[in-house]
Amino acid sequence: MTTNSLTTSQGAGRTGDKVFSGAALTAGCLILAVLFGVALFLVVQAIPAFVAPAADIQGGQGFAAYIWPIVLGTLIAALIALVIATPVAIGVALFISHYAPRRLASGLGYVIDLLAAIPSVVYGAWGAAFLAKEIAPGYDWLANNLGWLPIFQGPASATGKTILTAGVVLSVMVLPIITSLSREIFLQTPKLHEEAALALGATRWEMIKMAVLPFGRPGIISAVMLGLGRALGETMAVALVLSSGVLTASLIQSGNQTIAAEIALNFPEASGLKVNTLIAAGLVLFVITLAVNMVARWIITKHKEFSGAN
Amino acid sequence: MTLTAPVTRKRSALTKGQLPSYAPYVVLAVALVLGAAILALIGFNVFGWGVVSAILFTMGLVAWSGVVEGARKAKDKLATCLVVGAFLVALLPLVSVIWTVLVNGIPGIITPGFLGTSMNGVTGTLDNKAVEQGTKVLGGVYHALVGTVQITLLATVISVPVGLLTAIYLVEYGNDRPLARAITFFVDVMTGIPSIVAGLFAAAFFFAVVGPGTKTGAVAAVALSVLMIPVVVRSSEEMLKIVPNELREAAYALGVRKWRTILKVVIPTAISGIASGVTLAIARVIGETAPILVTAGFATSINNNVFGGWMASLPTFIYTQILNPTSPSNPGPSDQRAWGAALVLIILVMLLNLAARLIARIFAPKAGR
Fold first, then answer.
1. How far is B1 from chain A (nearest CA, A)?
2. I need a surface site. Which of A90, B1, B21, B142 has the fewest CB within 10 A?
3. Rounded mean pLDDT, B24-35
4. How many residue contacts between A and B have a Cβ separation below 8 Å?
5. CA dihedral over B212, B225, B97, A252, signed as positive or negative
6. Which DSSP letter does residue A156 get?
7. pLDDT beyond 70 at B146
8. Domain-by-domain residue ranges, chain A?
9. Cα separation of A299 and A218, whole Å?
10. What is the ipTM metric for this complex?
């Protein structure tokens, strides 16, 4: 849509053109301003927590001592979610793209997308009321049989409200994200590569291993990174499911806490410096997720340039 | 002679060394029976039966295939079983969540007055009485429904113009300039902002501008807009991109100005996709809890003013009823209300998703040429 002499000529409607393009440009810039504003206002409100004397911060040992355990807790919960969700999500994506009958495929994809439509608070309620109760006997078994591993050290929580349960709920929530992105990538596999593999006598699995997965690897990686971003920032699943506490190595005891849940549980009643501390914690979460998402998007963009040749 | 030789081989040479077509069904039947037998020994339940049978089925089919067809085919069968298994595993939580919400939510939602009353005046004493004397559980979600509708509506009013105009800038004016590329990149980054950080941003912004402790529905709407704008931009951008260039060129050729071309030609062509994208964006933010929790507080009575006072919403209602039951000694009534609200919320979200599909189908431009 290059401007030509006809559309730039004098006449009725020229102001309309200017106003409209100006509005569009303003809206675009507003988005950049908002993102910048998110960072700026978080920083401004967080500074008091960074400069406050150590004794005034919750825990009495300064901001770093306060934030480290919950950063680790956040990473642990997100890691559990990814370890569970990634293989299942890749399996589901392969099922929809290469195994399911063509006619059913889009319908099945929609069913998986329904998982993403369910509000997070409902997942939290489900995890707390149903999953934790059902999964608790399994933790007893883990504690009795694999208790020598530090992560499964007993005694297991009787209510099942542990970081592992929270991780399982998170894995359900990130599953549709990883699935839909991987599915897109798998469907883009060059048909000729697939057919060549099959023509050479490869079984369906060998074809997937030789043609689909190598082609989709960058896509899978970025999908997992985006899932990680979601798992890191997810609040309700953890706030409702986990009975939080200090940083614990064992995944099947109550304890641990994530940044998002810490904010959600404490912010409504917080006042004074506590508000600044929680906003500072939010800033830390923002920086972590921003980094993860930017790397993921960078991988996708880099991949796009190459896939154009196919 | 060869002509008279009896045909002893029943199967063609082409299918030799392959499992018969009925093999999976045989293995499945055997696995189901064996699974039931094993489960009968250690205590029967349907879930365990399914898991044990699935494992037996996979092992049986792979072993049989390994003997008859060789290792490569066996590996293929194993992969097929795992992939199908992954899909079934993914369905489990979906079925379980919907089932749990239905079973727990229906008693709440059929209580008379649940949708029409607020929690104003409902105290722990009343809840205790409801449990002890078996009377009906008082209180409802009306105030939360009002809050959810108002906050979401205000968020939509903020997000749609900004999001749509940005999409128009990217598609019609951007021309792949550095600014357009920066906006595209940061919109992508914005989709990854954790919802609670969006809430904190809105809270921090209003704390700084209006005064510390400002919590109203409007703050929550701003928080939701931060989450909603990138979704609207992305979906509208996709829809504007697929409007054929010939339509624009035809309009230009008739001497129509660019802004009128966009308003009268481009947007009407893409309106079905844009509308369904906006509906999906609403469905996404209507269930957000964390940002509302830190920006709107929670109220127990009806607040019709989105710009003043604390405001309840369905998600925060569910959250507070579960975490802080109205009567700490008898959480039953609170649980019932929470699940009822969860059912209402899920129905809302599903209706919005359905509406998005219908809009896309009904208003789709006629494809015939």
1. 36
2. B1
3. 88
4. 288
5. negative
6. P
7. yes
8. 1-51, 55-307
9. 7
10. 0.84
Nearest to A122 among B78, B262, B342 (CB): B342
Q: Residue A209 burial (CB < 10 Å; 0-12/13-18/19+)?
A: middle
First to last CA, chain A: 27
The size of chain B, in residues, is 369
Which residues in chain B have Cβ-Cβ distances shorter than 8 Å to A203? 72-73, 75-76
Query: Would you call A122 and B101 a contact, using CB atoms and an 8 Å cutoff?
Result: yes
Higher pLDDT, A17 or B124: A17
| Ramachandran class of B139: left when φ > 0, alpha when ψ lies in -120 to 50, beta otherwise | left
pLDDT over 70 (residue A304): no
User: Which distant-in-sequence residues (6+ apart) come within 8 Å of B247 by Cβ?
Assistant: B265, B266, B269
Burial track A23-49 (b if 16+ CB lie within 10 A, e otherwise): bbbebbebbbebbeebbebbeebbebb
Note the pLDDT tens digit of each residue in B213-243: 778 888 899 999 999 999 999 999 989 988 8
B88-118 pLDDT, tens digit per residue, is 999 999 999 999 999 988 888 887 777 777 7
Report yes or no on whether pTM surpasses 0.95.
no
A102-106, B2-6, B39-43, B134-138: least confidently modelled range: B2-6
CB contacts of B96 in chain A (<8 Å) are 126, 130-131
Among B288, B342, B322, B284, smallest CA distance to B100 is for B342
Tell me which amino acid residue B342 is: A
Nearest to B294 among A41, A121, A263 (CB): A263
Chain A residues with beta carbon closer than 8 angstroms to that of B73: 203
**Inter-chain contact B87–A96, Cβ cutoff 8 Å?**
yes
Give residue-wise pLDDT tens across range A197-232.
999 989 999 999 999 998 888 888 888 988 898 898
> Looking at this protein, which amino acid is placed at residue A101?
P
Q: Which fold has domain B142-362?
A: MetI-like fold (1.10.3720)
Q: Which CATH superfamily is domain A55-307 in?
A: MetI-like (1.10.3720.10)
Query: Which amino acid does the sequence have at B51?
Result: V
What is the C-alpha separation between A175 and A224, in angstroms, rounded? 9
The answer on pLDDT for B321 being more than 90 is no
Sign of CA dihedral B310, B115, B138, A133: negative
Among candidates B113, B117, B119, B146, which has minimal Cα distance to B301? B119
Long-range pairs, A205-211, Cβ under 8 A, ≥24: A205/B75, A205/B76, A205/B78, A205/B79, A205/B80, A206/B72, A206/B75, A206/B76, A208/A94, A208/A98, A208/B79
Q: Which two tokens stand for residue A116?
A: 């993403």
